[in-house]
Amino acid sequence: MRICIHRGSKQIGGSCVEVEDEGQRLLIDLGLPLDAESNDSQHLPAIQALDGNDPSLLGILISHPHLDHFGLLAHISPNIPIGMGADARRILSAAAPFLPNNPPIPSSGWDYQSNQTFGIGPFKITPFLVDHSAYDAYAFLIEAGGKRLFYSGDFRAHGRKSALFYRFIEKPPCNIDALLVEGSSLSRLSSDQRFPSESEIEDQLVQAYSATDGMALIHTSAQNIDRIVSILRACKKTGRRLVIDLYAAAILEATGNQNIPQSDWPDVALYVPQSQRIQIKKNAWFDLLKKHSKNRIFIESLQESPKKSTILFRPLHCSDLEKGNCLEGASYIYSQWEGYWERGTYDKLKDWLEYHNISKQSVHTSGHASPADLKNFVEALAPKKVVPIHSFMPERYADLYTNVEQHHDGEWWKI
Ligand SMILES: [Zn+2]
Question: Ligand 1 centre and the CA of 70: distance in Å?
Answer without folding.
Answer: 10
